[in-house]
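INFO  loader      accepted 1 record
INFO  loader      residues=219
INFO  predictor   begin
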Amino acid sequence: MPTPSDRGVPGGGPPIEPIRVLRPRRTDALAELMKDMPPRAAVRYESFVLPGPPSGTEDATEELPPVRDDRPRRSRDIPRGRVPGLRRTVIAAAVTAAAVIGFGCALLLPGRGESTAAAAPRPLPTSSATPTPTTSGAPDPDGSGTLRQGDSGPEVSDLQERLRRIPNVYDNGSTEGTYDTTLTAAVARFQLWYGIRGDEDGVYGDDTRRDLESRTGGG
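INFO  predictor   done
INFO  writer      dumping tokens
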């Protein structure tokens, strides 16, 4: 087929027209097939009357009792803002907690009273130049050479010198020979750090003396 050199310019040959092909439908065979089919018989419906209820049934009819719904209630059936059983649970928990607290207090109070009485400080003797044994003749429970707050003398100075040799117990403490509150706190600190249990807190008794002299040298 010749192709024109320029578009829009017709060529020298005749124009090409579209060809339409028509194909007739073959309906003759379908018509012949329909003629050979036998005619369908008409469908007939038989009518009849329904039997009525027997006589006396209306009097014997009883109303059925309502059906009880035992299914668990779903969350959407419960009113909003309320949880079933929550109030009972809270009350039971509060009663149980109160009972436990009361029982615990009953157990702790007697022991606390006894521990308070046991930890009560003993009366301090009057200050004197040197520690002297009691005049009544009763032995000192912490030993014959016990030193307490208010005592003074060379033995107190020796105690101060020895405590200054223990690190962080009586650093730069006074050595004037007076058993004051600072020395009492230093003795109690030494007893606590080195596990001395035979003497009272802050009292320089036999157990504290033996342990301190073993660490600083006998004298």
